[in-house]
């Protein structure tokens, strides 16, 4: 079963401002250059209930999809991803216990349950003690087959920049983009 809107590769770039984090999500062209703008996201800092809305346009006038926490201030909070009309696309949650030494997330899509972890255990531990812009990567694997279904790779730079690869057609672009932005926002990057 394929997702309604699958995109095999895209980029997420963060722009930090005083009160919000802004993200631009662009399609990756076959040659690796930036393609069309897919969404603009905005996350308010220090919000009690985490919510990020993605817009179709730079003026942020046309909502396209969003993710929101199910509960306030919960270490294992689940996040639901919804389309512009409120339809459920999937969900994700941070696994607080497993994340103490290596950040771990669970991703759910129709017909798929996957677990994502930081690829490098040493970098995962160092990130907890040293405040440097480490290049870190997450791989999400299908819980049944062990196959990689999504990867998010942070590029080495002062501003956060990610390459997201989604080889599994069951993962809707909007869920993948939400998870990628969620990784950045929830890890306080």
UniProtKB/TrEMBL annotation:
It comes from the Bacteria. InterPro entries: LOR. It holds the Pfam family LOR. This is Scramblase. It comes from Nocardioides aurantiacus.
